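Morning, I've got a small favour to ask if you have a moment. I owe you a coffee for this, so here goes:
>
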Amino acid sequence: MAPIVRIENLTKSYATGFQALKGVSLDIEEGEILALLGPNGAGKTTMISIVCGIVTPTSGRVTVAGHDVIRDFRKTREIIGLVPQELTLEAFETVFNTVSFSRGLHGKRPDPALIEKILRDLSLWDKKDTMLRFLSGGMRRRVLIAKALSYEPKILFLDEPTAGVDVSLRKEMWQLVERLRATGVTVILTTHYIEEAEEIADRIGVIDKGEILLVEDKAALMRKLGRKRLTVELAEPVEAVPAALSHYNLSLGDDGHTLVYDYDTAGERTGITGLLAALAAAGLRMKDVATEQSSLEDIFVELVGGAK
């Protein structure tokens, strides 16, 4: 099956000479949740804006459900929902009216029952008659999501959807995204919250300086690039790592009570068995042993840091 969104060799340069995108190619599969991670200025919003028909690319091609986003703009815009970063809303309109208007703007027949369901799902129903200027930033962001959902898009782009909202609301939005995926909606989100990508994404894309560094299944990425750390707590402190253990590249804790060993989870052999035997042979008594897996944040920092 062809991807629902296909991005091919996409570039975007501005009159200033700044190149926001440098030959980006990306396939997005129908029904998946794809998280795009990248620092400020990486090109995330530019890429989304091109797919949604807001920005014109310098070169390259984007198709949505087989339709070219430039040539078949009306067809592609009908099936794409966008929740932008900016909280741009009509201050003196009510919640219900602004969401209903968004549905009509996209050529959909009035459906008050659907609007009510969307507002209830986003915990906005009790605010339906409230003017937008009286809402908090978090509430207004939920209204932006409601506006995008009002015309029942097949593809939903969420550009920093939980920026500025509290943790509880963030988790509510994660649950909403899962429900949308269950109905067949393809969700692409950009985020600065690593735990957000780790929690809900099927695949992770990392973009930096206008280039895609990788796009990988989340579980495969963790296996491929994740590392584990073994921390050995010693019964008695040591002043230095014994010479017999030098080839294990151990690091010694400040107090001399711990030895730290990093190893690759994808390696054929971790070397742990040999290390533990070597510790005993060196006369070091272990008090405790613990392991920890590198997080998606560790992987992200390593990728972006390595690209600089």
